[in-house]
Specification:
Blueprint: E1 7-9, E2 12-14, E3 18-21, H1 28-38, E4 42-46, E5 71-75, H2 82-95, E6 101-104, H3 117-129, E7 133-138, H4 142-151, E8 155-158, H5 172-181, E9 187-189, H6 195-203, E10 208-211, H7 213-216, H8 221-241
Parallel strand pairs: 3-4, 3-10, 4-5, 6-7, 7-8, 9-10
Antiparallel strand pairs: 1-2
Helix pairs in contact: 1-8, 2-3, 3-4, 4-5, 6-8
Length: 261
């Protein structure tokens, strides 16, 4: 049965392992339709780019993505320093009546959108001390992942490849090292381009997949959202089932003992 297995992120419990974003859609109607089709329970929102009440005279995302229906995950996209990120998370907490689950994302530059890990570590320490449950976007560095977990972050979110690139998982070896050591959920964040990328992440043992562009920039976003939901579900089941060993040569599907000759 779909979503029969629950999983934990901090004090939050979910069934769907697909987390989705809200950017790049042509309008709010398409945003709502695609997110509903994805079956996602967690929806991430860029506080510096999306109106969730900061601007009373502008369309409000919460009119179509209700906090009563979804768990909102405010993120700090667009921040380049720890100070900016901490301030953004505090604003989100104020706008969302004390909501404490946030996605920390601090960028190194505007060309690659690669994470600035020095600033990320500084912000994570402050946010955890301030009572936030921090899910943290990071590079695919196993040591940094361990450090962030030890700080108290509730989820590690290594990139598969650059944000919005659609290149898929370019360094599966490092991702596997992170998964092997982590005691908190590991969620691939960034770079997913199509359903097979999402399935691969889940087959490797990731707890979930967060994506936005792969759905929003598809020719048919709603159909891609359905595909991503199916891929995450299939990848999780394949991981639990345990794949067969790879062999260098053929192995007959039917037994060869007792064959009539």
């Amino acid at each position: 049965m779909a979503h029969s297995e629950t999983w934990q992120v901090g004090t939050y419990s979910f069934r769907s392992r697909l987390l989705v974003g809200t950017g790049k859609y042509k309008d709010f109607a398409e945003t709502k339709a695609a997110i509903s089709a994805s079956g996602a329970e967690v929806v991430t929102v860029a506080i510096r780019r999306t109106n969730i009440g900061q601007h009373a005279d502008e369309p409000n995302l919460l009119d179509v993505i209700s906090p009563k229906e979804f768990t909102l995950l405010p993120n700090t996209a667009g921040c380049h320093t720890a100070e900016e990120a901490v301030r953004t998370c505090r604003l989100a907490r104020e706008l969302l009546d004390g909501h404490d689950l946030v996605k920390l994302e601090i960028l190194g530059d505007d060309k690659t959108l690669y994470p600035n890990m020095h600033q990320t570590l500084l912000a994570a320490e402050q946010l955890v001390a301030d009572g936030f449950q921090v899910m943290v976007y990071m590079n695919d560095d196993p040591i940094a992942a361990q450090t962030l977990e030890q700080m108290g972050c509730v989820a590690i979110m290594p990139l598969g490849s650059l944000i919005g690139s659609g290149l898929g998982i370019l360094n599966p070896h490092n991702l596997r090292l992170i998964i092997e050591e982590a005691k908190v959920p590991v969620i691939v964040d960034a770079g997913i381009g199509t359903a097979s990328d999402a399935a691969k992440a889940m087959e490797m043992g990731c707890s979930g997949v967060l994506l936005n562009s792969a759905i929003a920039m598809a020719e048919q976003p709603v159909l891609m959202a359905e595909a991503m939901a199916a891929a995450v579900e299939a990848g999780r089941k394949a991981h639990l089932a345990g794949r067969m060993f790879k062999r260098a040569y053929a192995s007959a599907s039917s037994p060869i003992e007792g064959v009539v000759r």
